[in-house]
From TrEMBL:
This is HTH tetR-type domain-containing protein. It comes from Ktedonobacter robiniae. Residues 38-57 bind DNA. Residues 15-75 form the HTH tetR-type domain. Keywords: DNA-binding, Transcription, Transcription regulation. InterPro entries: Homeodomain-like_sf (IPR009057), HTH-type_TetR-like_transc_reg (IPR050109), HTH_TetR (IPR001647).
Length: 195
């Protein structure tokens, strides 16, 4: 009985250590970026040795996958399912952009660093592939409300909606140009109307 208890305690301790490593890595990726979040810095913040990190995460990809999963569980992107019931193209777009821009605002620090870090750490593009696939699905769902009426313009509509939902577009309009989210949404809706 004592051995079983000891194994359970050890497993619990290992899971707690693993979680501390993930949380330390996420914190650093969000505040200084993944490029500056070396294993040594992560280990120091998590209160473990470098070797302990390698025991839990044998390579950079496994650590990045764990961090991404943890962060996305805490910060899920908007659920586009309910938008499908909105038949009006512009209302669907406005509802989607409202939720998307709120998401971009909430996750701004991490998104900014992640986009920058992908240039220095190509492994991140692979790790974030499901995230990019999600945004393609969102683009297609929003575009589907416009396309039946505008079949000749569908490529431009998809491109314009892809641009409208992009984190970089939100950041440019809101942070660099000083618009409020509602003003940025209105601008994007007008852009789509022009097509």
């Amino acid at each position: 009985m004592a051995r079983k208890y000891t194994l359970q305690q050890r497993a619990k301790h290992q899971e707690e250590t693993r979680q501390r490593i993930i949380e330390a890595a996420v914190c650093l990726h969000q505040t200084v970026g993944g490029a500056k979040a070396s294993i040594s810095v992560i280990a120091e913040l998590a209160g473990v040795e470098r070797l302990t990190i390698y025991r839990h995460f044998p390579d950079e990809r496994s650590l990045a996958m764990a961090c991404t999963s943890h962060y996305q569980a805490l910060n899920p992107p908007p659920d586009p399912g309910p938008w499908q019931s909105i038949q009006d193209d512009e209302q669907r777009l406005r509802r989607g952009l409202s939720e998307i821009y709120a998401f971009h605002r909430r996750t701004e620090q991490m998104s900014r660093h992640a986009l920058h870090d992908m240039e220095e750490k190509p492994i991140l593009r692979e790790v974030l592939a499901p995230y990019f696939a999600y945004w393609e699905q969102v683009r297609d769902l929003l575009a589907s409300a416009w396309e039946p009426k505008n079949a000749p313009c569908s490529a431009r509509i998809r491109a314009a909606i892809g641009h409208a939902i992009s984190f970089q577009t939100w950041r440019s309009l809101v942070r660099e140009q000083g618009l409020e989210d509602t003003e940025a949404i209105e601008l994007m809706a007008r852009m789509l109307r022009c097509l």
